[in-house]
Amino acid sequence: MNPQDIEQLVKESKIQLQGIDLIEFSFSSQDAPSETHIFEVNVESKVNKKDLNIVIITNIKILTSDKDKCLAKVVTGCRYLVDNLKEFIEKSNDDFEMPILLVDLLNSISLSTTRGIMFELFKGTFLHNYVLPIVNPKDFRVVDSTQETR
Question: From CA 116, how far away is CA 17, in angstroms rounded?
Fold first, then answer.
């Protein structure tokens, strides 16, 4: 399938957000650190061919600038139903390859959703103003990161 066909296929896809799960949340109860902080962001895709859904796992850690202490960790799962998911499965060997356009779209939605969850979780704490910065979903493209779930 050529790139134009894939782009058209993604545009014609009906994508529905099926669920949002807070998989893990941890928070350091220590006083606000005086030093700067960094965000460590990881995104992983999992495909369930049977149920025609994709789960994007977003894992965020807020670390002290020296990466010595983890101030908080939030892991979310956003589950999407993609009506034409079977069209992205290679028929000859049952392999699955998500088009980059679809990866970028789902990563963007999942990162934004996680940002909102973090904002709500951190209300009233010293982390309240530690808002996840805007990140480019293209930075999380990994060719072989898609795993199948059963």
Answer: 15
pLDDT of residue 65: 83
Largest CA distance in the chain: 57
Burial of 103 (0-12, 13-18, 19+ CB in 10 A): buried
Q: Which domain holds residue 90?
A: 3-141
Domain containing residue 92: CATH number: 3.10.420.10
In a domain, 7, yes or no: yes
Phi-psi region of 52 (alpha: psi -120 to 50; beta: other; left: phi over 0): left
pLDDT along the chain (150 residues), means of 10: 61 84 88 75 87 91 87 95 74 65 88 96 88 82 45
